[in-house]
Amino acid sequence: MQLGSYIEVYKIRIHEIIWFPYRPEWKLIGPLLVLLFLAVAATGLVNAIDLFGLFNSITAKNAGNLAPWMVIVLLVLCLVFCVYSARSDYISIHAALLPCFVTTVVIVSLSLYFTSKTIDMRSMFQAATGALGSLMFTGRIIQSGGVDLGALGAIRRRVEQKTQACLQTPVADSSFSSRRKDLTEDVKKLADELKKAAPETTDQTSVEKAIKSLQNFLARSELVDHYDFLQDLREGEDSLIRALKRIGGRRYDDP
Questions:
Q1: What sign does the CA torsion over 179, 185, 188, 194 have?
Q2: pLDDT (tens digit per residue) in 23-42
């Protein structure tokens, strides 16, 4: 058994490690603005905003009565807002989780480093609040541009669901023909959107191979009967299920 090929779909290479808003039309000013914005938020200056300043003043007064799980809730909210802000840069939430987790850790760590000499409940609340403010405003003000990989991922998931529906429907059933037609139409949409996204992805060669697999599947689907169509869904180098696994960024074993 050998490990098959797979695609982790990112807009830029750094998104494999850490997320930040990326706008392809901004050559230099954009990245500098993003870094400045995150630095200001991470160093605690976001607390000057009334909402976060009020929240931190309340927590500071009651730091001794605050439970650690409340800090955890804030950190989870940071991760949630980061994933939400990064939704157009990754093909799935699964692909965004690790980079967004690293982003949250980095911002919280910077805030602790610049604003506190000791790590206690109060400083953790302030750091988590600063990170949350940073991610909330970054997601609203400096959103990513270019192709929407999240929308592409939604099409892939829809194709995956319709593939399973076809596999579970008997060929003799009257609904099979319509399900087959709906599936092939969505596969065509997926191939078209993946083709548009290819220039902005980090691994264009693998993406182009996936597009070729989808196109080969579509070409065969116009010629075969229902039984061979079902076989094409599951078997062969260019089977639809294999192509979906590649695009989904999951590892799998070759037969």
A1: negative
A2: 877 777 777 777 777 777 66
> What secondary structure does DSSP assign to 191-241, as a single string?
HHHHHHHGGGSS-HHHHHHHHHHHHHHHHHHTTS-HHHHHHHHHSSTT-HH
Give the number of other Cβ atoms within 10 Å of residue 177's Cβ.
12
Inter-CA distances, 140 with 133, 135, 241, Å: 11, 9, 36
pTM of the model: 0.80
Q: Tell me, what DSSP letter sits at residue 5?
A: P
Instruction: Identify the burial level of 130 via C-beta atoms within 10 angstroms of its C-beta, where 0-12 means exposed, 13-18 middle and 19 or more buried.
Output: buried
Backbone angles phi, psi at 186, to 5 degrees: -70, -35
Identity at 151, one-letter amino acid code: A
pLDDT of residue 3: 33
Residue 6, pLDDT score: 57
- Say how far apart CA 100 and CA 131 lie, in whole Å: 12
| Matching residue, tokens 């953790």 | 124
Tell me which amino acid residue 126 is: Q
H or E element, residue 168: helix 149-168
Q: Are 229 and 180 in contact (CB under 8 A)?
A: yes
- pLDDT < 50 stretches in the chain: 1-5, 50-51, 250-255
**Sign for the pseudo-dihedral over CA of 197, 198, 201, 207:** positive
Q: Which has the closest alpha carbon to 18: 138, 158, 168?
A: 138
- If you count them, how many residues does the chain have? 255
